[in-house]
Design brief:
The chain has about 350 residues and is α+β, with helices and mostly antiparallel strands. Helices cover about 45% and strands about 20% of the residues. The chain has 8 helices and 11 strands. A hairpin with a 4-residue loop joins strand 10 and strand 11.
Length: about 350
């Protein structure tokens, strides 16, 4: 069978990589590439082993059907193994799906308040705290790159980095418009208001992913404003980078030195350009799917947080969880929501292959 041949090739390839890595003949970039490939294959190898064990078990049980003494036992084994085989085959199909090359990357996230005034800014702050708590629970680091806070501790805009292996694979489905329905703190009449905030998730780009020509950018420095300590308004530490070919402008003033702000701003610019490249590649290959799961469309309403009913609904997969507090706390319920989105995306891609 074709699938069996493919699985045997993976086993052989994993063995070859292991031999190369143990030989000491490869190092540097090549060793890093091999380690990454081996790590990926290692996730599939136990499933492949289980698959072949089940296939062999079915073959052995069929042989035993001709033995009158063992026929009954063999029949029971066949029922059990034939039930397990489709489950393992489905897991293998999902494991063999093409991976997003950026899944292992850290992420740059942007949250912007939308319609709803101060209440929208407060909700943007809630979303930032949600993702910050979730990231820290995962053992990832969170670094604020740029922020525009309001007097009530909300955010008109906040840009931050979540640094951790596999962060993009978990966070990429958060791109879109998030709505909140609740009674605002500023509402005296107790009426429920609806407001929104937009979330953008970009994989952090490495130097090898995007090359930026110095002649294509202008770097301006100016005095930082707002919170930040004694250096604020006394030194030209803030940095603004303008990318001429795309018109993208990135500002950073959150770090204490001009050099740190430039590094942070360049990281955001590089990630924005990387995301543009990825979108162009998808469009060029006609691989974009009509469904919103995984598309990253920032203009689509993807989720509603309803405080009176304590529910959160993801409109892409029609999933509602009555666990609002835990989701906003970045708890296990947010994992439940993200896991459901990942599963929906996998099933969708499987269906597109048939």
């Amino acid at each position: 069978m074709v699938i069996d041949d493919k699985l045997k090739e993976i086993q052989v390839r994993a063995s070859e990589i292991e031999t190369q890595m143990n030989s000491g003949a490869v190092e540097g970039v090549e060793l890093t590439k091999l380690s990454k490939e081996y790590s990926r294959l290692s996730e599939i190898l136990p499933l492949i082993t289980e698959y072949f064990q089940i296939k062999q078990g079915i073959s052995d049980a069929n042989e035993l059907l001709h033995d009158d003494e063992l026929k009954s036992i063999a029949s029971e084994q066949l029922v059990e193994l034939n039930h397990k085989l489709p489950e393992v085959e489905k897991k293998l199909q999902i494991a063999l799906l093409p991976r997003d090359e950026a899944d292992d990357n850290s992420v740059i996230m942007e949250i912007r308040a939308g319609v709803g005034g101060e209440e929208s800014a407060l909700f943007a702050g809630d979303l930032y705290n949600q993702y910050k708590s979730y990231a820290l629970r995962k053992g990832w680091k969170v670094e604020v790159i740029e922020e525009n806070p309001t007097s009530l501790h909300g955010y008109k805009e906040i840009i931050f980095k979540i640094d951790g292996v596999g962060a993009y694979a978990r966070m990429k489905f958060e791109s879109g418009i998030h709505r909140v329905q609740r009674v605002p703190e500023t509402e005296a009449g107790g009426r429920i208001h609806t407001s929104a905030a937009s979330v953008a998730v970009m994989p952090e780009a490495k130097d090898i992913d995007v090359v930026i020509d110095e002649k294509d950018i202008r770097i301006d420095v100016f005095r930082a404003s707002g919170a930040g300590g004694q250096h604020v308004n006394k030194t030209d530490s803030a940095v603004r980078i303008t990318h001429f070919p795309t018109g993208i402008v990135v500002t950073c003033q959150n770090e204490r030195s001009q050099i740190q702000n430039k590094i942070a701003a360049m990281s955001v610019l590089r990630s924005k350009l990387y995301e543009m490249q990825r979108e162009a590649q998808v469009n060029a290959s006609n691989a974009s799917r009509k469904t919103m799961v995984g598309s990253g469309d920032r203009s689509e309403k993807i989720r509603t947080y309803n405080f009176p009913e304590q529910r959160v609904t993801d409109h892409r997969i029609k999933l509602t969880l009555y666990k609002l507090d835990d989701i906003l706390a970045g708890g296990a319920a947010l994992d439940e929501m993200i896991d459901a989105l990942i599963t929906a995306d996998q099933l969708e891609r499987l269906a597109s292959l048939n």
